[in-house]
Design brief:
The chain is mainly alpha-helical and about 100 residues long. It has helices at about 15-35, 55-60, 65-70, 75-85, and strands at about 40, 90-95.
Length: about 100
């Protein structure tokens, strides 16, 4: 479950987990520093993304939870763009 790696330490994935956490905290801190400006930074934290067939097979081999954690990339993009529309049009958005 890749999304969890940014929120909880993961055994045997210390650097991966720390880098995910850094991105999340960088976004939060930057948004705080830019408060009142017309800029907003967004981090999309999605579940398992089927980017490679070996990753998909690994997720599927984890049983029901593994299969449930796989998200269609098009769906992630669609949901992310929908949420972006809720932000004022005057803001600049970087993702």
């Amino acid at each position: 479950m890749p999304i969890l790696t940014g929120f909880f330490p993961m055994p045997m994935k210390a650097v991966y987990s720390a880098s995910k956490r850094y991105i999340i905290e960088f976004t939060r801190t930057s948004n705080y520093e830019l408060k009142g400006e017309s800029t907003h930074i967004l981090t999309v934290c999605a579940n398992g993304m089927p980017t490679r067939s070996d990753i998909v097979e690994k997720l599927k081999s984890q049983g029901t939870l593994g299969r449930l954690s796989i998200v269609n990339i098009n769906k992630v993009v669609r949901i992310s763009l929908k949420k972006l529309k809720k932000i004022k049009k005057s803001r600049k958005i970087y993702s």
